[in-house]
Amino acid sequence: MITASSPHNPRCTADLGAQYITCSPHYVKEHQNFYEELLAHGILKPLTSPIEGMKGKEGDCNFVAPQGFSSVIKYYLKKSGAEVFLKHCVTQIHLKDNKWEVSTDTGSAEQFDLVILTMPAPQVLELQGDIVNLISERQREQLKSVSYSSRYALGLFYEVGMKIGVPWSCRYLSSHPCICFISIDNKKRNIESSECGPSVVIQTTVPFGVQHLEASEADVQKLMIQQLETILPGLPQPVATICHKWIYSQVTSSVSNRPGQMTLHLKPFLVCGGDGFTHSNFNGCISSALSVMKVLKRYI
């Protein structure tokens, strides 16, 4: 759930990750309170713009985030009252004086009463320190079994007043070698503004993402723009672009039986959560969060 802003105009944004939320009748009921709250606060709203090539099941509901999908995260963080520190890459976790000492790549360390890890499973296995010996062989095999797709996303930001004359807001491409999805992002969210131009998001196919995973983002961006021109010829030059490499995009294989969480240590508490323990969409994230809370409450 990454929403990028144009460096020329912060009001012009584009979702580089999740594009919309699809909710089945089962989850409409099971996660009803989450959806009602997000809709009531205007964080989500029903998707009404046309999406070409979308495959859905009968009874599914689709939602977009008018302020971009990062607004969902910001809403919950603000509500929690948590003190948030960004861009701290955790490298080691040690057990010290019945607390967890968490170290970062800058060499700083801080102690915590409990730790919840929600990074992709391969990154859990990369952590150093006492955590290495706390993960049982069975848990290690389960974490190794989680696999992810990889892809690139490119955000293109255009001048104020520029029009993109297509009848859809988003389009899936089923057989293109490079691009699998295009979104006219402001149109998808039903946002018309005289203060900012349109934004376009392109997402690559998984085979293309894997093939070019080690390439530079500049080279990949050039390829993506060339391919876009064959699909939407005549697009003017964007005023700004942002390319994002998703090494861990969607979960293609989760932990068996989808337990929602994996408890690594009880006292002090250390648990893993995230879509690798459920399935890779918003409802999977909610399900994992609820599973983590269930075991956390028992510990507290």
Can you put this structure into words, describing what you see?
The longest helix is centred in the C-terminal third of the chain and has 18 residues. Strand 18 and strand 19 form a beta hairpin. The radius of gyration is 21 Å and the shape is globular. The mean pLDDT is 95. A six-stranded mixed beta sheet has the order 5-13-14-15-12-16. A three-stranded antiparallel beta sheet has the order 3-6-4. The chain is an alpha+beta fold. It contains ten helices and 19 strands. It comes from Mus spicilegus (Mound-building mouse). Keywords: FAD, Flavoprotein. GO terms for molecular function: epinephrine binding; monoamine oxidase activity; NADH binding; oxidoreductase activity, acting on NAD(P)H.
**Overall pLDDT:** 95
Along the chain, the helix and strand elements come as: EEEHHEEEHEEEEHHHEEEEHEHHEEEEH
Tell me which oligomeric state these chains represent.
Answer: single chain
Helix- and strand-based class? alpha+beta
The side-by-side strand order for the widest beta sheet comes to 5-13-14-15-12-16
Tell me, briefly, the overall form. Answer: globular
What is the number of beta strands?
19
Helicity range: 25-40%
Distance between the termini: 30 Å
Q: State the low-pLDDT regions, or none.
A: none
Strand content: 25-35%
Q: Over the alpha carbons, how many angstroms does the gyration radius reach?
A: 21 Å
Number of helices: 10
The major pleated sheet works out as: 6 strands, mixed
